[in-house]
């Protein structure tokens, strides 16, 4: 059990040292702030409402959403 706690602490230290969580928060804010760019890229429709579900946007969640939308766009070709 000691090793698990140690690895978790190392992971926390790494995230803090490299400011990973700060970067993810910045990217999330940037994506929401640059809504017009999302529309231009076809990743957001004009009438779509961005909703905050109260959970942090993880990289995996973001990646899944972008992939889903890109598949929808390319499906017409």
TrEMBL record:
It comes from the Eukaryota. InterPro entries: DD_EFCAB10 (IPR049760), EF_EFCAB10_C (IPR056587), EFC10 (IPR039879). Residues 16-70 form the EFCAB10 C-terminal EF-hand domain. It holds the Pfam family EF_EFCAB10_C. PANTHER family: EF-HAND CALCIUM-BINDING DOMAIN-CONTAINING PROTEIN 10 (PTHR21847). This is EF-hand calcium-binding domain-containing protein 10 isoform X7. It comes from Acinonyx jubatus.
């Amino acid at each position: 059990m000691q090793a698990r706690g140690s690895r978790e602490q190392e992971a926390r230290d790494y995230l803090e040292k490299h400011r990973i969580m700060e970067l993810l928060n910045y990217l999330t804010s940037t994506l929401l702030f640059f809504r017009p760019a999302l529309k231009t890229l076809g990743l957001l429709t004009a009438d779509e409402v961005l909703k905050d579900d109260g959970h942090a946007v993880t990289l995996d969640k973001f990646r899944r959403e972008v992939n889903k939308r890109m598949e929808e766009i390319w499906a017409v070709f």
